[in-house]
Amino acid sequence: MKKDSPWYLALWCVVGVAIGIVFVGVLTSVVHWAGTEKFCGEFCHSMDATYVAYQKGDHFRTASGATAGCSDCHLKNESNHFAGPIDYTALLIDKAIAGSKSLFGEIAGHLSTPEKQIEMRQEMAEAVHAQMMDRNWAACRGCHDVARMYDPKRPMLGEIHRHMGPEAKNVDCLACHPTAGHNYGYILKFDTAKK
């Protein structure tokens, strides 16, 4: 086949599309796998203590049976079910930053054991809290639609949250829900008992 033939160009276009599809498929699979609780809690050793606290937190098993995963709360746009390529790119950048912090903590040694992770807990919690505040609790709002929040058994629930919609500023979900994502009470008791 001659290089200036239209069939030659068509063949390379088909090969390029096939390689692109495989690349996107592999990338999507890796991104999905790297956002699972199995990856965050068992594969990523810098999160050992955090994973145990997550399993004791309110979002691990909810009353409805749903589970909010690590990515739902900690990655930009994940709980909001990102709508387009820009949102997905922001999610990938957020994932890369979070992953590199954990990897650096593992390599540097300050997150290499559960005991060291517990020592770093306050610093890490403050950083995540600040990030959640900066994002105006978008991760929480991605799952919790306060405008539709109503429980006939507890009517005050909807009333309390009524003014906490996306337009509200200075809302702090963790002020009332400190164990929503992680409950470190069990770990701290266990750690204190070991000493």
UniProtKB/TrEMBL annotation:
<feature type="binding site" description="covalent">
    <location>
        <position position="143"/>
    </location>
    <ligand>
        <name>heme 3</name>
    </ligand>
</feature>
<feature type="binding site" description="axial binding residue">
    <location>
        <position position="182"/>
    </location>
    <ligand>
        <name>heme 2</name>
    </ligand>
</feature>
<feature type="binding site" description="covalent">
    <location>
        <position position="70"/>
    </location>
    <ligand>
        <name>heme 2</name>
    </ligand>
</feature>
<keyword id="KW-0249">Electron transport</keyword>
<keyword id="KW-0813">Transport</keyword>
<dbReference type="GO" id="GO:0009055">
    <property type="term" value="F:electron transfer activity"/>
</dbReference>
<dbReference type="InterPro" id="IPR036280">
    <property type="entry name" value="Multihaem_cyt_sf"/>
</dbReference>
<protein>
    <recommendedName>
        <fullName>Cytochrome c-type protein</fullName>
    </recommendedName>
</protein>
<dbReference type="InterPro" id="IPR038266">
    <property type="entry name" value="NapC/NirT_cytc_sf"/>
</dbReference>
<dbReference type="GO" id="GO:0005886">
    <property type="term" value="C:plasma membrane"/>
</dbReference>
<feature type="binding site" description="axial binding residue">
    <location>
        <position position="177"/>
    </location>
    <ligand>
        <name>heme 4</name>
    </ligand>
</feature>
<feature type="binding site" description="covalent">
    <location>
        <position position="140"/>
    </location>
    <ligand>
        <name>heme 3</name>
    </ligand>
</feature>
<keyword id="KW-0472">Membrane</keyword>
<dbReference type="GO" id="GO:0046872">
    <property type="term" value="F:metal ion binding"/>
</dbReference>
<dbReference type="GO" id="GO:0019333">
    <property type="term" value="P:denitrification pathway"/>
</dbReference>
<keyword id="KW-0479">Metal-binding</keyword>
<feature type="binding site" description="covalent">
    <location>
        <position position="73"/>
    </location>
    <ligand>
        <name>heme 2</name>
    </ligand>
</feature>
<dbReference type="GO" id="GO:0009061">
    <property type="term" value="P:anaerobic respiration"/>
</dbReference>
<feature type="binding site" description="axial binding residue">
    <location>
        <position position="47"/>
    </location>
    <ligand>
        <name>heme 1</name>
    </ligand>
</feature>
<keyword id="KW-0349">Heme</keyword>
<feature type="binding site" description="axial binding residue">
    <location>
        <position position="144"/>
    </location>
    <ligand>
        <name>heme 3</name>
    </ligand>
</feature>
<feature type="binding site" description="covalent">
    <location>
        <position position="173"/>
    </location>
    <ligand>
        <name>heme 4</name>
    </ligand>
</feature>
<keyword id="KW-1133">Transmembrane helix</keyword>
<feature type="transmembrane region" description="Helical">
    <location>
        <begin position="7"/>
        <end position="34"/>
    </location>
</feature>
<feature type="domain" description="NapC/NirT cytochrome c N-terminal">
    <location>
        <begin position="8"/>
        <end position="184"/>
    </location>
</feature>
<feature type="binding site" description="covalent">
    <location>
        <position position="176"/>
    </location>
    <ligand>
        <name>heme 4</name>
    </ligand>
</feature>
<keyword id="KW-1003">Cell membrane</keyword>
<feature type="binding site" description="covalent">
    <location>
        <position position="44"/>
    </location>
    <ligand>
        <name>heme 1</name>
    </ligand>
</feature>
<dbReference type="InterPro" id="IPR051174">
    <property type="entry name" value="Cytochrome_c-type_ET"/>
</dbReference>
<dbReference type="Pfam" id="PF03264">
    <property type="entry name" value="Cytochrom_NNT"/>
</dbReference>
<keyword id="KW-0408">Iron</keyword>
<feature type="binding site" description="axial binding residue">
    <location>
        <position position="74"/>
    </location>
    <ligand>
        <name>heme 2</name>
    </ligand>
</feature>
<keyword id="KW-0812">Transmembrane</keyword>
<dbReference type="InterPro" id="IPR005126">
    <property type="entry name" value="NapC/NirT_cyt_c_N"/>
</dbReference>
<feature type="binding site">
    <location>
        <position position="95"/>
    </location>
    <ligand>
        <name>a menaquinol</name>
    </ligand>
</feature>
<comment type="similarity">
    <text>Belongs to the NapC/NirT/NrfH family.</text>
</comment>
<dbReference type="GO" id="GO:0020037">
    <property type="term" value="F:heme binding"/>
</dbReference>
<dbReference type="InterPro" id="IPR024717">
    <property type="entry name" value="NapC/NirT/NrfH"/>
</dbReference>
